[in-house]
Design brief:
homodimer, 215 residues, Dihydrofolate Reductase, subunit A, 9-stranded mixed sheet, 11 strands, 27% strand
């Protein structure tokens, strides 16, 4: 069976995984993009989002590439899918990523409001799960068919899966930035007590990569 | 006039500056020593505490050396001075550092309980200040005579000076470790809003060094 993993998730030096006040204009929250400065220049990002063959190929790119390897399904909190809150007024919103999202596997979106599956180009189909995080994981595991399930975020979603003891591996990109405020990933969570051990750390060009694993 | 600075202060990836349950046996709190793994092998530490001429001379050592440069006085919270709580029963406790502490300048210890100054070898005299953090800073500035005042810690002391807007420069050594619990340096503090800007970052052999400055 595949792992349940968090990968290439950026946090600030204070532990913030997103800035405050997420909106259509600021999908990552205020100053949120600063968390991802290590990722944007990589070849992985450039080929995925900028249609470019260029991009860096160093340590940051290696970790970015690894985060997509062997991933059979994703789980996203609803705010990762879009800025719409409350009931879906229509089906116009199709995610932040345009016609061909970078997933290419099934994506399970946690929401309190039912919506029928959304098929996008490149095998990225979004399924909207209203039965909670464990049901979403069950569906994602089935869809992943032996590959890993990647919890994409945001902070609240990752924290919920951690608190239930459902995550096997964590890779954080610690960005050299102080946001001042935002959503704290670590507050009140005792990762060592949950059984996580730091198994890898490597300084990339733009972030410090740390990998924790249970066991 | 010299700066008021925090320097070479180690924090975990969650922002903990010390482990929990500080005691005579665990002056840095449980697992606290793991925060300082970058510092122990340096030539600065080795010559200061181990009477050795050996030690590393790389980036970590450079930052360790810088933290002592131009320092004219120190301020320490009482728990940095020792494990005794409440009134001083006697004057037997003379700090963690033996006969010749590594300061060699006046040290101002914040306490609620008066005690006469303690002169140690090598010009390290401890003054016990009962009138609060601002009085301690005033005395330390005077003693520093134009050089910097270094706030040594612990977490609570640094936070109090930050909250009063009295710190000019911060250098943290971000250690690649998750402590799980401890004293959080950053919780509820908005460093950018206080006017701090990240002016330097460098990955050392054992820690990520970040320097923030006001202005």
């Amino acid at each position: 069976m595949g792992k349940v993993k968090v990968a290439a998730f950026s946090v600030s030096l204070e532990g913030f995984g997103a800035g405050p006040n997420q909106s259509l204009e600021n999908p990552l929250g205020l100053r949120g993009p600063e968390l991802h400065q290590w990722f944007f220049p990589t070849k992985v990002f450039q080929s995925m989002h900028a249609g470019s063959e260029k991009g860096t190929t160093g340590i940051d790119n290696d970790f970015a590439a690894r985060s997509f390897e062997n991933t059979g399904a994703w789980i996203l909190g609803r705010n990762m899918f879009g800025p719409v809150r409350g009931p879906w007024l229509n089906e116009d919103w199709k995610g932040w990523w345009g016609e061909n999202p970078p997933y290419h596997v099934p994506i399970f979106v946690l929401t309190h409001h039912a919506r029928k599956p959304l098929e996008m180009a490149g095998n990225s189909t979004f399924y909207f799960v209203t039965e909670g995080i464990e049901a979403a994981l069950e569906q994602a595991r089935k869809a992943a068919n032996g590959k890993d399930v990647r919890i994409g975020g945001g902070v609240s979603t990752i924290r919920q899966y951690l608190q239930k003891g459902l995550v096997d591996e964590l890779h954080f990109a610690i960005s050299p930035v102080f946001l001042g405020e935002g959503e704290n990933l670590f507050a009140g969570l005792n990762l060592p007590k949950m059984g996580f051990k730091l198994v890898e750390q490597k300084q990339g060009e733009g972030a410090l990569h740390v990998v924790l694993r249970k066991g």
